[in-house]
Specification:
- The chain is mainly α.
- Helix content is 59%, strand content 3%.
- The model has no long low-confidence stretch (mean pLDDT 88).
């Protein structure tokens, strides 16, 4: 389970996921070492899907069905990459009622220690 922490500047509650991202990057690196051509094509395909989706999101004249199709394409290419990462299976925390309440209490307790945000100490990250 994620263990919430107060950010170093005291302006937010932090849910650390860096260690989980590191596992994914390690898995991708190993998959690339095993088959650089195949994984390289998958990464390039996903990058192209992401660029097309980004364009659809910001385009004012893009039809909604086109946005949905591009989002589905990006989701599919992302899922194909995630399939190359065995550690992805354990990334999502599934919390039962007691664990969910415990996490909520931890976050709430930490939130009570957040310093009020002023113009001088406003964090650059939301």
């Amino acid at each position: 389970m994620l263990l919430p922490q107060l950010s170093p500047d005291g302006l937010a509650v932090r849910l650390p996921i860096a260690a989980r991202v590191e596992q994914l990057l390690d898995d991708l690196a190993l998959a690339y070492a095993e088959d650089p051509d195949d994984l390289g094509r998958m990464l390039a395909r996903h990058a192209a899907s992401v660029v097309r989706l980004d364009h659809a999101v910001v385009s004012e004249d893009m039809a909604e069905y086109e946005r949905a199709m591009r989002a589905a394409e990006a989701d599919a290419s992302r899922e194909a990459l995630v399939d190359q990462c065995p550690s992805a299976v354990g990334l999502d925390d599934l919390l039962g009622p007691e664990d969910a309440i415990t996490l909520a209490r931890r976050i709430t307790r930490l939130a009570g220690h957040i310093r009020p945000c002023t113009a001088q100490n406003r964090s650059p990250h939301p």
